[in-house]
Amino acid sequence: MRLLVLGGTVFLSRAVAEAALARGHDVTTVSRGTSGRPPSGARHVTADRAAPLPRELTQTAFDAVVDVSSRPSHVRSALERLSHAHWVYVSSVSVYADDATPGGGPGILPLHRPLWDDSDDMADYGPLKAGCEQLVAEAAASHAVVRPGLIVGPGDRSGRFAYWVDRLRHAADGEVVLAPGNPHDLVQFVDVRDLGAWIALLAERSTTGVRDAISPPLTIGDVLDQVAAGCGARPRWRWATDEQLRGLGIRPWMGPRSLPLGLPRPDYDGMQTHLPAPAREAGLRIRPVADTARDTRAWLDGTPHAAITGLTADEEREALASLG
User: Fold this and answer.
1) How many CA atoms lie within 13 A of 102 on its CB side?
2) C-alpha to C-alpha distance for 163 and 254, rounded to whole angstroms
3) CA neighbours within 13 Å on the CB side: how many for 108?
4) Which is it for strands 218-219 and 186-187: parallel, antiparallel or unpaired?
5) What pLDDT, in 10s, does the model give residues 144-154?
6) Measuring CA to CA, how many Å separate 309 from each of 13, 106, 186, 257?
7) Cβ proximity of 163 and 260 under 8 Å
8) Could you give all domains of the chain from N- to C-terminal order, each with its CATH number?
């Protein structure tokens, strides 16, 4: 297979390129060359997607294209020149307009109204992805749409899962660690390497259809215990309700002064309980959380300036003192 990865130098798009190379495919990556290097063995073309793709790409008979962009102008421009190939478009569960209903997925939950014009407002992320999905559906010779939930693992630039790995790699045995919500709350995510391997497989097989790319739901208590195990830590959890966290000015999910992975319930009961079976039946394989945590720790140990989002050590100590 001749595979074109639009990107290919950082996180998910790099994981796709690496997986395809490992399967023996001819891989070309495209980026501006400012965020990282392509994996060894890939042919790399330096290009800015704000401009038309170079002729050396449009004159190559690629069998498949993988695109992760959320900018409709980029997707539209690439489709104008590469619509003959099988496309795997990486969207997001953010395209769904309903975050409260558990057990959702394609054809079950309503979608945001698509946006067709580029926007840098993060509030537009879901509508932008919905717009890009439609562009691919309308123009590509054949296509698959992949809607991941939270993507985690080595190289993560969001810092959400990495917050817990970082916190627990520094935790002493028996140390009290603040945790969000109820330990029985369900969460979902996908290791970037598992997702990359699956996307390469969908491209190789010219698989069509729309699927959410997530793990089976796990309780957040089990997830944090597995992260602790992967980091060699044995903490004591201090669970705080949504109301308690709000009272302390602690935000959910991500960002400064937040406890990542926690979400207000029941408003977000559906965001991390999407149906995993369609992706599993199409070949997605999920590794244990402890393995992801162990490898993320190794990456953090070698990446001193990796992004971490969440409470500072002082903020957590103050919150624990207030909770008693």
Assistant:
1) 10
2) 9
3) 17
4) antiparallel
5) 999 999 999 99
6) 22, 30, 21, 8
7) yes
8) 2-151+190-213 (3.40.50.720), 153-188+216-273+288-323 (no CATH)
pLDDT, tens digit, for every residue of 182-199?
A: 999 999 999 999 999 999
Alpha helices in the chain (DSSP H): 11-22, 55-58, 72-82, 125-139, 160-169, 192-205, 220-231, 242-247, 277-281, 289-301, 313-323
DSSP 8-state class, residue 41? T
304 close to 162: Cβ distance less than 8 angstroms: no
DSSP one-letter string for 200-264 = HHHHHHT--EEEEE-PPPEEHHHHHHHHHHHHT---EEEEE-HHHHHHTTPEEESSTTEEET---
Mean per-residue pLDDT over the chain, rounded: 96
In angstroms, the CA 49 to CA 15 distance is 20
Distances (CA, A) of 191 to 15, 77, 206, 220, 295: 10, 30, 22, 16, 10
Contact of 44 with 14, CB cutoff 8 Å: no
